[in-house]
Specification:
- The protein is an all-alpha fold.
- It is elongated, with a radius of gyration of 21 Å.
């Protein structure tokens, strides 16, 4: 067995396997991030539309946050502040895009929040 481990062919092969695993993990993380951002877009859109069309009042975001945290206590991201940010993020980009822009969906949520807090122009944000 030691002969196999010491061979250059084996070392090259195992490094290739490790690279494939690293690449797959990166793809999974990017996919999860993209799905999460699509969800946040939909939440932001729904809240924005409800606030425009209903008379539910200013406490809507707070109540939604409470309901979602109760239903999904194991998940982070449904605090009032974060849901407010989802609506703000949706309102910012929806002026130009009907869906989450691909370039935006490729960066983490924290970076997206930072961008919209510091930038007021979509072109600059992109």
């Amino acid at each position: 067995m030691n002969e196999i481990i010491k061979s250059q062919e084996y070392k090259g092969w195992i490094e290739n396997l490790k690279s494939k695993i690293h690449a797959a993990r990166t793809k999974v993380a990017l996919s999860i991030n993209s799905q999460l951002l699509e969800l946040y877009w939909e939440i932001g859109k729904d809240i924005s539309e409800r606030q425009r069309t209903s008379d539910w009042g200013s406490k809507l975001i707070e109540q939604v946050a409470d309901e979602l945290r109760k239903e999904f206590p194991e998940l982070k991201g449904f605090a009032r502040r974060n849901i407010y940010a989802m609506r703000q993020w949706y309102n910012f980009y929806s002026e130009k895009y009907p869906f989450v822009p691909q370039s935006v969906a490729q960066i983490p949520w924290g970076h997206n929040r930072l961008i919209i807090s510091k930038v007021k122009d979509i072109k600059e944000a992109e």
